[in-house]
Amino acid sequence: MLPTPGPRDVLVVVDMQNDFCEGGALAVSGGNALVAPINAVAARFDTVVLTQDWHPAGHSSFASSHAGRDPFTTIEMPYGPQILWPDHCIWDTHGAAFHRDLHIPHTRLVVRKGWDHPVDSYSAFFENDGVTPTGLAGALREWDAERVILCGLALDFCVGWSALDARRLGFSVMLVEPLSAAIDVDGSLAAIRTACDDAGVVRILE
Ligand SMILES: [Zn+2]
After folding, report:
1. Which of 21, 113, 151, 196 is catalytic?
2. Given a cut of 90, is residue 61 above it in pLDDT?
3. 15 is catalytic
4. Tens digits of per-residue pLDDT, 110-152?
5. Using DSSP, how many helices (H) and how many strands (E) does the chain show?
6. What residues have a C-beta under 5 A from ligand 1, the ion?
């Protein structure tokens, strides 16, 4: 169970956008059903951050940008392996907008990621090269945040990678599984759970 939030806790709600919910271009099963409970939990936190996947058209993470390649296959990028995705979350489109029922009016910061054409960004903290910061870590430090609580989409990619990076940065981290849903490509869900457990991420299971 999620503990009562304190003043140094920050809730990070990851990628609750149309394209990741049912009916979207890269829909995660169970996405729509998360909106109401996330709204309810977010209301208990003083500080909430939203992340927003935000790509230019023709982004390098799209299969359509690589001749002959299909979505959900992996290619080697200069920064390492990259799964290719269907076109999704193209900036200023309906698909990139937050779910219309997401209602967290006291949101303090929106972090956009994946905006740079040559590199994807799953994590809310670093692009997929593992070194280019999004700025979120700096904000959390300036706010004197101590613990990061994560939920949203998708558990096995953007939520999970964000959790691992938050640990790497020295924060206490909780990943709220009932407020997250997974894509599960080639065992990615089991892999991220193991990685989180090994890294000391506390997975909240109910
Ligand atoms: Zn993306």
Report:
1. 113
2. yes
3. yes
4. 999 999 999 999 999 999 999 999 999 999 999 999 999 999 9
5. 4, 8
6. 53, 114
